[in-house]
C-alpha cells in the first residue's frame, strides 16, 4: 500500500478516549517524520495534511502562495514523502 500523507494525518488526528497519552505519542511521531524535511518541504506537507493548525490546502492553493506551479508543489510533496518513508524505514 503506498504512503499517503492525508491518511496519516487523518489517523493521527483521531482521538482515543481510552489512552490520553496517545496524543503526545502521535505528536512525537509527526514531529519525527517532519524533522527530516527542509523548511519548504515541511511547510508544504503541513499544509497538504492540515497539520499544526493549518487547514487542508490544495496543491493549487499552495502553488499560489509560493508563486510556483502546482506541478512543482506535487514534485516537492513526492520528494518529501520519500524522505519520510526512508527515515521511518531506517528507524526499524
Indicate the topology:
Blueprint: H1 5-13, H2 22-34, H3 39-49, H4 59-66, H5 70-90
TL;DR of this structure?
The protein is 67% helix and 0% strand. It is mainly alpha-helical and 92 residues long. It has one domain (5-90): Orthogonal Bundle (Arc Repressor Mutant, subunit A).
Give a written overview of the molecule.
The structure is a single chain. With 92 residues, the protein is mainly alpha-helical. Helix content is 67%, strand content 0%. Helix 4 crosses helix 5 (70-90).
Task: Provide key terms for this protein.
92 residues, mainly alpha, Arc Repressor Mutant, subunit A, 5 helices, 67% helix
Average per-residue pLDDT, rounded, comes to 83
Distance between the termini: 18 Å
Q: Output the number of helix runs.
A: 5
CATH superfamily label: Winged helix-like DNA-binding domain superfamily/Winged helix DNA-binding domain
Overall morphology: globular
Oligomer: single chain
Q: How many structural domains are formed by the residues?
A: 1
Low-confidence spans: none
The biggest sheet, with number of strands, parallel, antiparallel or mixed sense and barrel status, is: none
- What is the CATH class designation? Mainly Alpha
Radius of gyration, in Å, reads: 14 Å
Which percent bin holds the helix content? 55-70%
The CATH architecture classification is: Orthogonal Bundle
CATH topology: Arc Repressor Mutant, subunit A
Helix/strand order? HHHHH
Strand content: under 5%
- Per DSSP E runs of 2 or more residues, the count of β-strands stands at 0
- Helix/strand structural class: mainly alpha
Amino acid at each position: 500500500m503506498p504512503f499517503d500523507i492525508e491518511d496519516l494525518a487523518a489517523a493521527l488526528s483521531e482521538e482515543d478516549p481510552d489512552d490520553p497519552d496517545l496524543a503526545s505519542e502521535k505528536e512525537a511521531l509527526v514531529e519525527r517524520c517532519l524533522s527530516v524535511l527542509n523548511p519548504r518541504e515541511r511547510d508544504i506537507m503541513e499544509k497538504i495534511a492540515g497539520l499544526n493548525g493549518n487547514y487542508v490546502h490544495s496543491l493549487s492553493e499552495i502553488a499560489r502562495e509560493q508563486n510556483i506551479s502546482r506541478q512543482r508543489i506535487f514534485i516537492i510533496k513526492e520528494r518529501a514523502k520519500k524522505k519520510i518513508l526512508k527515515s521511518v524505514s531506517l528507524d526499524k
